[in-house]
Design brief:
The complex is a heterodimer of chains A (353) and B (85). Chain A is α/β, with parallel strands linked by helices. In chain A, 31% of the residues lie in helices and 20% in strands. In chain A, strands 3-2-4-5-1-6-10-9-7-8 form a ten-stranded mixed beta sheet, with helices on both faces. In chain A, strand 7, helix 9 and strand 8 form a beta-alpha-beta unit. Helix content of chain B is 53%, strand content 0%. The two termini of chain B are 15 Å apart. The longest helix of chain B is centred in the middle third of the chain and has 15 residues. Chain B is an all-alpha fold. Chain B has one domain: Non-ribosomal Peptide Synthetase Peptidyl Carrier Protein, Chain A. The chains are: A alpha/beta (353), B mainly alpha (85). At the A-B interface, helix 1 and helix 4 of A face helix 2 of B. Chain B: This is Acyl carrier protein. Chain B: Pfam families: PP-binding.
Amino acid sequence: MTKTYINGVGCISTQKTFDTVFLEEAVVNHEENVLAIIPPAYKEYISPAASRRMAKGVKNGIVASALAMKDANIENVDAIITGTGLGCIEDSEKFLKSILDNNEEFLTPTSFIQSTHNTVGAQIALLQQCKGYNFTYVNGAVSFESALIDAKMQIEEAEANSILVGGVDENGDYTTSLFKLNGRIKADNSAPYDVLNSTTSGAVYGEGANFFVLEHERKENTYAELLDVSIVNTLEENEVEAAIISFLKSNHLEISDVDALVLGFDGNVDFENYYRNLAENSFAQTPVLYYKHLSGEYDTASAFAFWMAAKILKTQEIPEIVKVNAVEKSEYKTILLYNQLNGKNHSFTLLSK
Amino acid sequence: MEALKEELKNKIITTLNLEDIAVEDIADNDPLFGDGLGLDSIDALELIVILDKDYGIKLVDPKEGKSIFQSIETMAAYISANRTK
């Protein structure tokens, strides 16, 4: 069976993750419950004429994909597969607001055109003139993993040799206000916001775009091999360990073979035991990492973890800022990512050097 | 009329997100489409909505658009003559 390799990465996030080596400029923001991306110089990647109708999520997706392509040193891919939880929510909000404000009259086309979930994948394909397979997965917190599974299967079945796969989400003001009302985002005016040692409900929210070039062959610039991805819709807290053991076993691995575990702590005290149980028990002797204090929580935040794991496998260095415990390994060969959102949409992703 | 032209330039820049263009960059007689501002067919729809929403003018004959949207000058003249609000 053909193996799948990560040969290029591109990350636009709430940290400075472009024009950097890794996370050397990362800063934890304890003062805000909704983190905004650090914008790159869009004009270097998109002409002003093309960018004037694009929402930030589209622009971030285009830049992240361009960074990944450049990193992989390729100019064309066979397929583009995108994961997104809320799609182009900013333009969706604009369009819906316009319907209400104008009593269903005077609807302008621009925000409607840009409001669909597959706008990002479509715009990337237009700019690259990629006429191959183009698919967008909208599966909540496993949107990115759904895209990954598709990409892996395409490569395994030799349907494609190089695939641009990514996760992208953006914050919209109205949706953010709704998430504050329903408790998905931590309450305003309750700073400092802590992700790892939180005592309150709700998450610190964020946004970002992470794209990767997956290919069927190992190259000089390969970051890692994508070994496996698994999605489980619902698990109880006490079922996670067994699910991980089973997932590892299907890849002929045991817990002791995992050199680092990346967990999706998002600051929501109501569901943190899904992670804490693992960190303090079965993976107590394993380096445990977290990332949503840097990226914020969003449906495709796990793509940021994927970027982080790929970087660790390539550089063999774990930045202090992402460590949950002090355990270290002399070499990092296998990394397991585990994420879930409010007890649903569990995903397990396995990378190896 | 001068105030209306200024208003139209501002509306066009804002509505069409012409990020790198300022009011003073648009001459009254510059073509809005093609070689001038380089607007396209989607922008034309946005301009039609501006006429309807802000000045109460409904374009019944799409062919009229070509002459009305030639420049800021022609737009302002048409709006002055036909506006209902």
